[in-house]
Amino acid sequence: MNLYEHTIVARQDVSPTQLKQIEEKYSKIVEKFDGDIVKLENWGLMNLSYLIKKNKKGNYIHFKIKADGKIIAELEKNEKIDKNLLRYLTVKVKAFDLDTEYFKKSEDKESFIK
To answer: Which phi and psi angles does 73 have, rounded to 5°?
Structure first.
């Protein structure tokens, strides 16, 4: 089994319930083909570097997947036709970094400013 990091960018006007449905839809595809989701992170609404399909922001969902290449092909086939998604990216990695939370909201923002 290979290790993949898969990120989805959904439209900015997607409701929280639709976002949950997107997470469940792609999680079920991975599980259907005997893959394993090691970690699922919802990074939230963030600014895009440039306009994508007239959107300035996007909702980011990040999966850490242990699976075969066939599952990734199936995921990307479904994502191409999903109108709620702007972009997706899959990267094959050698090991997962499960400790670092890159986009976690922290209360200690003052300590970084000083």
So the answer is: -60, -40
Q: Out of 1.10.510.10, 3.30.70.60, 3.30.950.10, 2.60.260.20, select the CATH number for domain 2-94.
A: 3.30.70.60
Q: Taking the CB of residue 60, how many other CB atoms lie within 10 A of it? A: 18
Domain boundaries, the chain: 2-94
- 23-46: string of b/e by CB count within 10 Å (b at 16+)? beebbebbeeeebebeeeeebeee
Q: In what order do the strands lie in the sheet with 36-52?
A: 36-52, 55-67, 2-11, 85-93
| SS3 label, residue 54 | coil
Please name every residue paired with 55 in a beta bridge, in sequence order, or none if there are none. 52
pLDDT per position as a tens digit, 89-100: 999 999 887 777
pTM listed for this prediction: 0.82
Alpha-carbon span 56 to 37, nearest angstrom: 29
